[in-house]
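Predict structure. Input: DUF2147 domain-containing protein, 139 residues.
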Amino acid sequence: MKKIIFAFVALFFATFSYAQIEGKWKTIDDATGQPKSIVEIFKKSDGKYYGKVVQLLIKPANANCVDCKDDRKNKPILGMEVIRGMQKDGATFTGGTITDPKTGKTYKCNIEREGDKLNVRGYVGFSLIGRSQTWHKVK
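Output follows.
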């Protein structure tokens, strides 16, 4: 009986931790396929998830987000909060936004975790019209 309870508890915690997105993730450049930056995703006291650039692996043409339209305009990309306001909805994180510091554009965002990978989808309007990236867990 103890083995069954232990197995159930272990399975519960494995399932619970599987859908978490907190931690450091390596982003990949769409054009070159090379690692571009490290984004750390964390949960704030409001219960929502945010992500900021903690390391640049490719030097950008401009170290600041010159094309951003909001409070991030002309702010350094390193340390910039690029993911804002994500909420957990089952296995998906949604309801927030993601900003591309290269273009300054902000998109609605969905994130799903598959093992050591995050499927990050930014879109305008509805999810069918958008762009997806796969981010890799930093160990």
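Residues 20-137 form a domain with the Lipocalin fold (CATH 2.40.128.520).
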